Amino acid sequence: MTRLSLNGIEVDLEEGTTLLEAAQHLGIEIPTLCFHQGLSAYGACRLCVVELGDGRLVSACTYPVQEGLRVRTHSPRVLRARRMLIELLLSICPSSKRIQDLAAAHQVERVRFSVRDERCILCGLCVRMCAEQMMAHAIGFVNRGYRRRITTPFDLPSDVCRRCGGCLYICPVCELRCQGPEATSIVCGACVTPAPTCPPVYGDLACYMGAAGECGTCVREPRTPDPHSSDLRGRRESL
Q1: pLDDT the model gives residue 194
Q2: CA–CA distance from 178 to each of 25, 117, 182, 185, 227 (Å)?
Q3: N or C: the chain end with fewer CB closer than 10 Å?
Q4: What is the mean pLDDT of residues 75-102?
Q5: pTM
Q6: Which residues make up the CATH 3.10.20.740 domain(s) of the chain?
Q7: What percent of the chain has pLDDT over 90?
Q8: pLDDT at residue 200 in the model
Q9: For residue 157, what is the DSSP state?
Q10: Mean pLDDT over all residues of the chain?
């Protein structure tokens, strides 16, 4: 067994367990996009980053537990990194409902990058689904850098593809946002509730509500109105 500290909680886990599995074992929710149980870990989206005791940020889905390791899953630095990554993902594919939901959950209200709207974030879920669950290997990555994409060999119709639809089923960007493909804004944010809960905040975590600020009401960026302000109370009363 391997002992480590996760958000100050001492836990013993089997060797080979990843930090993401360790967090799930304790009921700590870490956002993921390219991870799916039943498929190999890939670490492409980096949304599951956590902070180690030496200050490094690593992907929880691929990093194994180690003896004496100290891990913080929702430190201020980790939350800033996740919001930046969500901004980048939104700039690549603002039409994805899954990414818009992540933006709402992490209070991402703007995108500071040029919007490309490429309909693919290169998470690799479809490639791994085709290879590991469907045993077809009909699609894969080609090229590198900004030219990297997913296609069939030589861009020709695949003889091994069974048209099972597994790649579409698992794709996180195939489900369009509520406003459709012609939305007027990059960030939706419609799913954020204005009703404050305001539980006590203890370090990185806010008791049973999870990470401090995760609900979007008790801790926010300075530009966001105080949830106890008379203006916001008036908005709640009018609902």
Answers
A1: 45
A2: 33, 16, 10, 12, 27
A3: C
A4: 94
A5: 0.78
A6: 1-74
A7: 67
A8: 55
A9: -
A10: 84
Query: Could you give phi then psi for residue 7, rounded to 5 degrees?
Result: 55, 40
Residue 206 Cα distances to 74, 181, 200, angstroms: 10, 36, 6
Q: Which residue has the tokens 């109105």?
A: 225
Which among 110, 91, 93 is positioned nearest to 176, based on CA atoms?
A: 93
Parts of the chain belonging to CATH 3.30.70.20: 125-170
The alpha carbon of residue 230 and the mean position of all alpha carbons in its chain are separated, in whole angstroms, by 33
CATH number of this structure's domain 1-74, picked from the four choices 3.40.50.1370, 3.40.50.150, 3.40.50.300, 3.10.20.740: 3.10.20.740
Q: Which whole-number Å values give the CA distances from 72 to 9, 20, 57, 78, 79, in the listed order?
A: 10, 12, 10, 8, 11
Phi, psi of 49 (to 5 degrees): -60, 145
Are 173 and 116 in contact by the 8 Å Cβ rule? The answer is: no
Instruction: Write down the architecture of domain 125-170 according to CATH.
Output: 2-Layer Sandwich (3.30)
Six-digit token pair at 239?
């609902």
